[in-house]
Amino acid sequence: MCEQSCCYELLSRMYQSSNRWEAALQLAHTKDRINLKRTYYNYARHLESEGKLELAKEMYEKCQTHHYDVPRMLFEDTSALQDYCTSGQDP
User: Could you point out which of 35, 55, 83, 87 has its C-alpha 20 to 30 Å from the C-alpha of 14?
Assistant: First the structure.
């Protein structure tokens, strides 16, 4: 019903809350581009809470919040943080 009435943001929230992240990302890519970065950010937070830090880093980079969120996420693991800072292409 949400898709028929073009309530893509609500449909995306429903997908996200039911852990259907692939569907939420696909919807954001195709029909809800205005919320694409927010969907990436929410997915990154979800991955971080599950301990999947490598994927979370990728999602933070896609939503362009990696300058703040990746150092926050890796603050306890200083060697991983140093590796991330030195291996990145972003000055």
Answer: 55
